[in-house]
Amino acid sequence: MPVNIMLADDHRLFTTGIRNLLGTDPALRVTHIATNGQELLDLFPVRLPDMVLIDINMPVMNGLEACRLIRDHYPKVKVIIVSGYNDAHLITEAMQAGARGYLLKDCNAEDLFHTIHLVNSGQTSFPFRPHLPVKNFETDNAFLQQFNLTRREKEILQLISRQHTNQQIADHLHLSIYTIETHRKNIMKKLQLKTPAALMKFILTHPCHSVIFGFYCLVLLS
Amino acid sequence: MHFFEYKSGDVTGMLPLIGMWSIITVLIFMLYKIESYKKKEFILLNRIYEQQEHELDIQEAERRRIAADLHDEIGSSLAAIRMNLQSLSYSSVYDEERATSLLELVDQTSQNVRRATHNLIPPHFETTPFTSILQSYFSSLDSQGAIAFHYYCNAYQQHFSSRQELLIYRIVMELTHNIIRHAKASEATVQILFCPTYLEIMVEDNGIGLPAAVQQGIGLNSVQSRVRLLDGKIHIDSGRCGTTFIIHVPVSCEHAC
Fold first, then answer.
1. A150 at the B interface (CB within 8 A)?
2. Which of A9, A176, B23, B248 has minimal Cβ neighbours within 10 Å of its Cβ?
3. In which order are the strands placed within the sheet that holds A78-83?
C-alpha cells in the first residue's frame, strides 16, 4: 500500500513540482492538491490521507492553523510543514501545532524523501537550529548561572564586597555612576534582595563568597 | 509729592520717567515675545515628533509589504523552480551537471531572499511571543559572527502592544548592529529586564567606545526617535573600555491595567 499524501500550497508550480518529484517513488502517492488549509480540510471527509505536506503562508487558512485543526480532529494524519522560513520560532510553533516534520522549501530531493519516510515510520524530523540557552553567562561558573548574573555584574559584586562606594566602582570600571546604580539595582533584583544591608549579608554569608574572594585574590596575584 | 509740581509743557523734567516707562514696556513686550516663541517652538517640536512617528509607521508598513512580496512571490517562485528542476529527468550526465549548478544558484538566491526578508521584519512578528523573536534573533547573531553575544531576558510579560514591541525590537537590532559594525568589541551583553513599571534594555559591549559626536546625541537618530516614541529614557555611557546603553521604557497604563 503506497502512502497517500495530500499537498496544500497556494503556489501551483511548487505543488506540481513536488508531485512530479514524489511520483518517482512508487511507495508514495499524491492524491489531492489544495491551495489553502480550508480546502485541504474539506477534502478530508471524502478520503483521509496518511500524510499531508502544508505550507505556512496560505490565504484563507494558513498552515499552522490547519495543522492545529488536524492535530485536534484527525490525529492519525501526519503533518509535515514545508515552508520558506527557517526561523527558530516558526519551527518551534510548528512543533507545538502538532507537526511531525518541518522541511525548507529549498530542500534536496533526498531530504524530502528521507523526511517523508521518517515521519511515515512514526518518527519526527525537524531541522537542527542551535537554540541559545537563556542562561548563557559563563556556563562553567555555577554561581553566575544560578542567579543569571553577567560578568559585569559579578565584577561589581566583587567591588561591593570590598566596601567600595558607587563612585569608586564607577571610577574603577570607567563607567558612570548611573550605570553602576542601575547594575546594582539589577543585581539586587536578580538575587531577590531588598536592601543594601541584605546585599552585604548575602555577600558575607553566601558560600560562593569564597569563590568570589578566591577569584579576586587570583586577580591580585596575577 | 513733587512730580505734581511739574508745569505742563516742562517735558525735559519728565524725560527720565518716560524713558523708564518705555524701557519697562519694551521689556514686557520682549518677555511676551519670548514666551510666545517658546510656545511656538514647543508646538513645532511636537509636530516634528508626530512627523517622525508617522514616518516610522510608514516605514514599518512598507517593510512589511516588501517582505511579504519578497517571500510570497520571489521566494515561492524560487522554491517552485527548484522543485521542478529536481523532478526533471536528464538524458545525459552533462545535462545533469548543468542542472546541479543551476540548483546551487537557485539555493544561493533563495538564501539571499530569505535573509533580506528576515532583515525587513521577522516572519509572523505579531503572532509570535516577543521573547521567542528575540531568542531567534540572538541565536542567528550567535551563529554568524566574531562577537560573543550574551542575551538574557527575565520573565517577560505581555505588557506592550505589538507596535511597541516592534519599536523595542528595532532598538535592540540597531544597537547590536552598531556593535557589530563599529564597536570593535569581542563581547557584548544584551539584557531585557522586565520590572513592574518599566522595561529595561541594557546593551553593553567591551569595544572602543562611541565617537564624541555620537555621545552628544548626534547619530543614533533612529534609536533616539524610537525611544521617544515609547516615552522612554536613554542613557549612554561610553568610554575607552566600551559602551553601555540603558534604556527605560515605561509600561503604558492601558496595557498594565
1. yes
2. B23
3. A28-34, A3-8, A51-54, A78-83, A101-104
Residue type, B132: S
CATH 3.40.50.2300 fits A3-120, yes or no: yes
Topology of the domain covering A142-221:
Arc Repressor Mutant, subunit A (1.10.10)
Residues in A 34-63 with any Cβ partner in B closer than 8 A: 56-57
Closest residue of chain A to B132, computed from CA coordinates = A89
B248 contacts in A (CB within 8 Å)? none
Is the Cβ pair A182, B124 closer than 8 Å?
no
Contact A14 B80 (CB under 8 A): yes
The dihedral over CA atoms of B223, B224, B227, B233, expressed in degrees to the nearest 10, equals 130
Tens-level pLDDT at each residue, chain A (222 residues): 889 999 999 888 889 889 988 988 888 999 999 988 899 889 888 889 999 999 998 888 889 999 999 999 998 999 999 998 888 888 888 998 999 999 988 888 888 999 999 899 988 888 865 454 444 444 445 666 677 888 888 888 888 888 888 888 888 888 888 999 999 888 888 888 888 888 888 877 765 544 555 555 555 544
Residue of B83, B169, B192, B235 to mutate for A, most A C-beta atoms under 10 A: B83
Q: Hey, do A3-120 and A142-221 end up sharing a CATH topology, with the first three levels equal?
A: no
Q: Which residue of B has its CA nearest to A131?
A: B139
CB contact under 8 A, B87 and A106: no
Distances (CA, A) of A163 to A1, A143, A177, A202: 77, 21, 16, 14
CB B147 within 8 A of CB B180: yes
Tell me whether B241 touches chain A (CB under 8 Å).
yes
Nearest-CA residue of chain A relative to B81?
A14
* Cα–Cα dist A14/A83, whole Å: 11
Domain carrying residue B158? 130-256
- Residues B216 and B117 reside in one and the same domain: no
Establish if A108 touches chain B: CB-CB under 8 angstroms: yes
Return the half-sphere exposure (C-beta side, CA atoms, 13 A cut-off) of residue B1. Answer: 1
Q: How far apart are CA B240 and CA B208, in angstroms?
A: 5
Split into its structural domains, chain B has a count of 2
